[in-house]
Amino acid sequence: MENVNLPPNVKDMTQEEFKEWLVGQDIDLKSAQNIIGLLYNRRAEAKAKRKKFFTDADRQIKELSDIVGSKTKYDISRANWATTPESANKYFTEKNKKGWSVKQEDLDGDDTNEIVVYDHESNPRYVNGYGIKKSELEKRQEYYRSHPAADDRMNRSMSEWINDVKLNEDGS
Q1: Alpha-carbon dihedral of residues 105, 106, 108, 109, nearest 10 degrees?
Q2: How far is residue 8's CA from residue 84's CA, in Å, rounded to a whole number?
């Protein structure tokens, strides 16, 4: 195939627009057909990748909603100490977490080990620094209902407000 300078906006052109551009070029028919086929295949591949991404994202959002949905009453929590075996072991020592352990395991079969923290009963508690905890969704929603404006939230953080609510619930 001869060397052809394609228009800079070729990625944005429809197949018909590209055919019209080709008419004005000094290119043999076979080369033009090869170029059109190549561009069409690239677009089809890109479209398939986008579709796969959104299909995967839809599935992952469904899995996430199974964890943090209002029916399950859980939130995802981040624990920086649970991201490496060294930091996890240091945390166990500092917090006197007897019987807790950390392992590197390939949980999803992608040939990359996850960092898994197990409690004293060998239950997995954190994966790659993420765990689950009892949801505070209702308290967060109430905080924003009772502090609707940003100015309302300047003097009292959500965490302070939630801690006060917890103290009141416990009767302390």
Answers
A1: -160
A2: 47
